[in-house]
Fold:
Amino acid sequence: MNLVLIGYRGTGKTAIARRLADRLDLTYIGLDDEIVRRAGKSIPGIVAEGGWDRFRDLESDVVRESAARDRCVLDTGGGVILRPANVEALRRNGFIVWLQADVADIVRRIQGDSQRPSLTGQKSFTDEVEEVLAERRPKYAAAADAQIDTSSLSIDEAVDRIAALFLDRSVPPRRR
Structure:
């Protein structure tokens, strides 16, 4: 079984996923890193050249292949839930945890990151985060097996909680 982290940009997916992989002795797969590797260009470069649809197509290919593996921590991009086929693939062999954070925390964490292109291209950074989060929340909720708010947790506290949830979920019941 895989452990899949979903959630908006800046909720801690990458940092938490790397530590979870170490803690649980699972393989870490950063889906955005794999997309960049395959495309031979940055996410902003992919989006500038082919638009968000091209990025999402690449993402879907990487999701399909990564989700078919076993014993991995999958660090997904924030929009992975926009395509139902991605969620179906991740769910087949995965325990999905939705990482959440307050808008102010998200803005503080990612505001200066040039590798995260605008999703709307027309609003203030905070307005964009609020708008996109409002649109995606129902999709995250529908996909998730569990939710963790990272706003008031350290990385280690989040890792402890998620590891416990995953181990409870992934250990088969004992036969009597």
